[in-house]
Amino acid sequence: MLPANPTRRAIGAILASVAACLLLIAAPSAWGWRPNTIAARQFASSRPGSASFTITTPAGKTLAYHGGKRRFTASLIKPLLLVAYLRQPEVRDRPLTGYERKRLLGPMIRRSSNQAATEVNEALGSKRIETVIAEARLRDFSYDRAHWGLSRTSSDDQARFFREFAELTPTRHRSYALNLLAAIKPTQRWGIAEVVPQGWRIYFKGGWGVHDSDGALIDHQAALLVSNQNGCTVSLAVMSDGNRLRRTGKQTERGIAKRLFAGLQRLGRRPGACRDTTAGGSAVGPALRP
Length: 290
What we know:
The chain is of the alpha+beta class. Helices cover 42% and strands 18% of the residues.
């Protein structure tokens, strides 16, 4: 046996740390599922343009790849506008009007109407929107009232926001808001929505458009998945910019989500797997049943 020395001890400590990290990555969590972040990172780094993602697990653990990188929101700001509108004192405790449901909030979310979003943005004003940003702890969000689509956010922000969406929405309007996110029009159901595991339902929104004067494109999605059997929840945000083709961003979203969701179907079938999971101080499962 070779005598111990500081250098040998240091090398040993490093090797032990590396081994522990590898075991942590490879081993399933106590919940029986761990997102395959290694495959997702490798895929994201190989894509044209620039991509980032953040996923939160049923246990509340957050895993990310460039999760703090800030990008233009495009239409990904619209769920935040929805929550801010429903939280207004003059709205939160009354029934919505037909105009609000069919001409304003519904079109803004389900078919991503920019005209409706502009009307909501102008009606709210900065203070009410920034109050939601602060309460949701969206640390990377910078709001641009004059050009709402040029606000900036990160995948960290969006994964957190979608995880807490139900808690942020007034109880009276929670089912309505969740149903809008569940009923995005078929022609906009690409990316994450294409790889939802069997037995899970999805609430999501996308944002896309031209990124800069060179014509580079952005494509983002944020989603909340809920198990139909045990109420487990997973939130995911995928953001990309610098794309030259529309299909590039869609393929990036789909590929990252597919890799992260590997094995998730089995977790959704485990009775009581997420019974004790909490977010915002209340049970996740019941809170997210529209």
